[in-house]
C-alpha cells in the first residue's frame, strides 16, 4: 500500500519506515564502521518531528492540488446547473400558482354566471328544436308554393325562386312576430315592425291568391274546363299559408325567451367564461407538468452534486488516513530503532514528540449535506422584497 502523492518526493510505507529507522538509530555507518550519533529528533525534543511536518506539507499539497481543486472545479459547474434548475422550479411553481388561481377564479365566475342564467329560466321549446321545426315547415311549404307559382306560366327557375322566397319569408316573419310578442317588456318599435310584417305577409298572400284566381279563371275559360272555383282555390291557398304562418308563429313563441336579449347576452357570457375556464384549466395542467419536470431536474442535479461531493470527500478522507498511517509508521520505526542500543546507559523509548497527536490534515471539502445551496438570484429576490417593504413603510 502506498501514499498516492504525485508531488515529489513520493513516499511509500516502506520508504517511510526506512527513514524512521534511519532517524531513530543512535549510530551511523555499517558493520564495523559504526559511529555513535544522536537520534533524530533528539530524546528531549518536544515538538513535532521535522519529517512529520514534511509529510503534512506534502499531504496538504496533494489535498488541494489533486482533490480539492478537481472537486471545486466540477462543483462550480454543477452548482450553476443546480441554480438554473432551482430558478426554473421556482418559476414553474409561481406559474402553476398563478394559473391555478386564474382557473379557480374563472370557475367561480362560470358558476355565478350559470346561476344567473338559470334564474332567467329557459324557453319552453329548445332553440334547436325550434329551428328544426321552422326548417321543416319551410321545406314542406315549398311544393305548395311551387305548384301555385307554376300556374302563372313562368319558367322553372323563376317558379322555384319565387317558391323558395315564400318558404323563407313566411317562417322568418312568423318567427320575428312570435319572438316579439313573447317578450316581457315589448319595445314599441318591435311591436310596430311585427304588425307591419304580419300585414305585409297577409296582404301578400291575398294578392298572390287574387292574381292566381284571375289567371286561373281566364285560363279555364279559354280551355273550356270547369272545375274548382278559382276564388275558392285562392282562398284555400291563403288559408293554408296563413295556417303555416300561425304554426310557425306558435313554434317561435314557445321557443323564445320572454327576456330574449338579456337571456342571449347571459348565455353568451356563460359560454365565454366557460371557454376561458377551459383555457385556464389547460394552462394550469401544462404548468403542473412543467413543475413536475422542473422538480425532477432539480432533484436529479442535486443528487449528482451530492454524489460528486461524496466521491471526493471519500478520497480526501482516504488521503488523511494514509497520511496518519505514514506518520504512525515513521514514529514506530523511529522508536524501535532508537531503543536498540545496549551501550546506552539510559534509553528514552517514548520521547515527548512521539506522544503528540498527529498534525491535523484539514479536509476542505464539506459533507454533502453542508454544501452551499444558495444562489445569486435568491439573494437578489430577498433584497427586492426588503426594498419593497422599506418603500411601503
Descriptive notes:
- With 393 residues, the chain is mainly alpha-helical.
- It folds into 2 domains: 208 residues, no CATH class; 134 residues, no CATH class.
- The protein contains 8 helices and 2 strands, in the order αββααααααα.
- It has a two-stranded antiparallel sheet.
Keywords summarizing the entry:
single chain, 393 residues, mainly alpha, two-stranded antiparallel ribbon, 2 strands, rod-shaped, disordered N terminus, disordered C terminus
Topology:
Elements (H helix, E strand, L loop, with lengths): L12 H12 L2 E2 L6 E2 L13 H71 L6 H24 L5 H27 L5 H36 L6 H25 L5 H80 L36 H17 L1
Antiparallel strand pairs: 1-2
Helix pairs in contact: 1-7, 2-7, 3-4, 3-6, 4-5, 4-6, 5-6
H/I helix tally: 8
Strand order of the largest sheet: 1-2
Number of strands: 2
Please report which band the strand proportion falls in: under 5%, 5-15%, 15-25%, 25-35%, 35-45% or over 45%: under 5%
Tell me briefly what this model is.
With 393 residues, the chain is mostly helical. It has helices spanning 13-24, 50-120, 127-150, 156-182, 188-223, 230-254, 260-339, 376-392, and strands at residues 27-28, 35-36. Strand 1 (27-28) and strand 2 form a beta hairpin.
Amino acid at each position: 500500500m502506498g501514499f498516492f502523492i504525485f508531488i515529489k518526493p513520493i513516499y511509500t510505507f516502506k520508504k517511510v519506515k526506512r527513514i524512521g529507522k534511519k532517524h531513530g538509530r543512535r549510530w551511523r555507518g555499517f558493520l564495523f564502521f559504526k559511529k555513535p550519533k544522536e537520534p533524530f529528533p533528539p530524546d528531549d525534543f518536544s515538538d513535532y518531528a521535522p519529517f512529520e511536518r514534511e509529510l503534512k506539507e506534502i499531504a496538504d499539497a496533494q489535498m488541494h492540488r489533486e482533490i480539492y481543486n478537481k472537486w471545486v472545479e466540477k462543483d462550480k459547474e454543477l452548482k450553476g446547473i443546480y441554480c438554473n434548475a432551482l430558478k426554473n422550479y421556482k418559476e414553474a411553481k409561481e406559474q402553476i400558482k398563478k394559473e391555478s388561481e386564474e382557473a379557480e377564479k374563472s370557475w367561480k365566475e362560470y358558476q355565478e354566471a350559470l346561476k344567473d342564467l338559470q334564474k332567467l329560466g329557459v324557453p319552453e321549446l329548445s332553440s334547436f328544436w325550434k329551428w328544426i321545426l321552422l326548417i321543416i315547415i319551410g321545406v314542406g311549404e315549398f311544393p305548395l308554393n311551387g305548384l301555385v307559382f307554376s300556374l302563372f306560366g313562368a319558367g322553372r327557375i323563376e317558379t322555384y325562386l319565387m317558391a323558395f322566397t315564400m318558404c323563407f319569408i313566411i317562417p322568418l316573419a312568423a318567427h320575428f312576430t312570435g319572438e316579439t310578442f313573447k317578450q316581457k317588456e315589448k319595445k314599441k318599435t318591435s311591436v310596430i315592425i311585427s304588425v307591419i310584417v304580419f300585414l305585409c305577409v297577409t296582404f301578400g298572400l291575398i294578392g298572390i291568391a287574387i292574381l292566381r284566381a284571375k289567371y286561373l279563371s281566364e285560363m279555364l275559360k279559354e280551355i273550356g274546363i270547369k272545375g274548382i272555383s278559382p276564388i275558392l282555390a285562392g282562398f284555400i291557398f291563403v288559408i293554408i299559408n296563413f295556417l303555416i304562418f300561425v304554426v310557425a308563429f306558435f313554434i317561435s313563441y314557445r321557443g323564445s325567451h320572454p327576456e330574449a336579449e338579456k337571456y342571449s347576452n347571459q348565455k353568451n357570457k356563460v359560454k365565454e367564461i366557460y371557454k376561458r375556464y377551459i383555457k385556464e384549466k389547460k394552462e394550469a395542467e401544462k404548468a403542473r407538468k412543467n413543475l413536475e419536470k422542473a422538480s425532477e431536474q432539480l432533484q436529479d442535479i442535486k443528487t449528482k452534486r451530492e454524489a460528486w461531493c461524496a466521491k471526493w470527500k471519500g478520497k480526501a478522507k482516504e488521503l488523511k488516513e494514509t497520511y496518519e498511517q505514514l506518520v504512525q509508521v515513521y514514529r514506530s520505526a523511529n522508536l524501535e530503532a532508537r531503543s536498540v542500543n545496549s551501550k546506552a546507559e539510559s534509553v528514552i523509548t517514548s520521547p515527548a514528540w512521539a506522544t503528540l497527536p498527529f498534525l491535523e490534515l484539514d479536509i476542505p471539502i464539506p459533507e454533502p449535506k453542508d454544501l452551499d445551496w444558495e444562489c445569486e438570484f435568491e439573494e437578489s429576490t430577498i433584497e427586492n422584497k426588503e426594498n419593497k417593504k422599506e418603500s411601503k413603510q
